[in-house]
């Protein structure tokens, strides 16, 4: 058993459908910098997927996709409101401030990794003078950093909140497919129909080798976004290799299949973990993450036995991730080993 399997969903490899799509796209010559048939097909496939005429770009990773998308929504004297555990705030090394030339990020709290609407209102309304960085964008993460999922009702409320305060709405969808698989509704319901202006749509953690899509539902916001990508070093010259996995995976329904599998595995993994005395669940398991609190001795014993998992993410404690590559048998075997280990302490 590979003891790295729960460390992160980006420890997984490339899924067969993405690999196959890249092989198909690898035939002969193709125009560069996105002027190729694969990029055109991927954009069309995403428009079909979202059932709307959105504008699509591809970036190498989520940090770039998030920060360039957010930078396109505001000016340097504006502010972006997000959860204090948002990836944008905690895991992107200040990229959004950098690419937006200093736009301030204002943090709000909220249970289960979801923004507290009252805190957003307070942040917007507490000041209206010229000395305060003008709130311009609300950024939420779906599925959240804590492995929870905003329900449709919650999303609609967030959309209305943003509209009420005249904030643009950005969604960090590094694990958007996991949320989609959980809610079982069309992608449109989770995005533009709920008021999302821009989505950064994760491919990597779902099974692609590299690449995230930036999807503008409000096309007016995408003006000159291609220049932003180029300047930031995010315009792939052999763009077909970023685009082709989207074509193959959307055609075959792989994004949802992979996400549903990862989510199912996380539920199974949670059962195994909770089977052990002293292990408690930190957050609801609604996507592909399991956060548990466990005795420090057990954390140490697992680490000593070679199991790799992080304990500093989100609100701390132990995080275990599943992916398209997770195997139910491995999870059951881990459960057996965990029980034995816990009994020996
Ligand atoms: C992984 C992740 C990203 C993207 O991170 P990169 O390492 O830059 O690709 C963005 N947002 C969330 C919530 C993530 O988990």
From TrEMBL:
InterPro entries: ArAA_b-elim_lyase/Thr_aldolase, Low_specificity_L-TA_bact, PyrdxlP-dep_Trfase, PyrdxlP-dep_Trfase_major, PyrdxlP-dep_Trfase_small. It is an enzyme of class 4 (lyase). GO terms for molecular function: L-allo-threonine aldolase activity. It catalyses: L-threonine = acetaldehyde + glycine; L-allo-threonine = acetaldehyde + glycine. Its EC number is 4.1.2.48. Its cofactor is pyridoxal 5'-phosphate. This is L-threonine aldolase. CDD domains: TA_like (cd06502). Catalyzes the cleavage of L-allo-threonine and L-threonine to glycine and acetaldehyde. GO terms for biological process: L-threonine catabolic process.
């Amino acid at each position: 058993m590979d003891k790295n399997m729960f460390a992160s969903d980006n420890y997984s490899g490339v899924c067969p459908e993405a690999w196959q799509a890249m092989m198909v796209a690898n035939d002969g010559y193709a125009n560069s910098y996105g002027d190729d048939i694969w990029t055109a097909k991927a954009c069309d496939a995403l428009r079909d997927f979202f059932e709307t005429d959105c504008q699509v770009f591809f970036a190498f990773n989520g940090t770039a996709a998030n920060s360039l998308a957010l930078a396109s929504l505001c000016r340097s004297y504006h502010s972006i409101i997000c959860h204090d555990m948002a990836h944008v705030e905690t895991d992107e090394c200040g990229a959004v401030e950098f690419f937006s030339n200093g736009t301030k990020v204002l943090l709000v709290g909220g249970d289960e990794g979801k923004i507290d609407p009252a805190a957003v209102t307070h942040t917007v309304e507490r000041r209206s003078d010229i000395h305060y960085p003008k709130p311009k964008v609300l950024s939420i993460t779906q599925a959240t950093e804590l492995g929870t999922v905003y329900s449709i009702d919650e999303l609609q409320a967030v959309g209305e909140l943003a509209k009420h305060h005249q904030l643009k709405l950005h969604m960090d969808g590094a694990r958007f497919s996991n949320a989609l698989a959980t809610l079982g509704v069309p992608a449109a319901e989770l995005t533009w129909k709920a008021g999302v202006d821009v989505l950064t749509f994760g491919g990597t953690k779902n099974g692609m080798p590299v690449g995230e899509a930036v999807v503008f539902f409000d096309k007016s916001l995408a003006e000159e976004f291609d220049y932003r990508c180029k300047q930031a070093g995010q315009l792939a010259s052999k763009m077909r290799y970023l685009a082709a996995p989207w074509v193959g995976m959307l055609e075959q329904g792989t994004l949802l299949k992979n996400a549903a599998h990862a989510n199912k595995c996380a539920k199974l993994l949670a059962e195994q973990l909770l089977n052990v005395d002293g292990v408690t669940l930190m957050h609801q398991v609604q996507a592909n993450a399991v956060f548990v609190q466990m005795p420090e001795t057990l954390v140490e014993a697992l680490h000593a036995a070679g199991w790799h998992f992080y304990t500093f993410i989100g609100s701390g404690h132990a995080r275990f991730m599943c992916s398209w590559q997770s195997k139910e048998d491995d999870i059951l075997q881990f459960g057996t080993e965990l029980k034995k280990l816990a009994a020996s302490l």
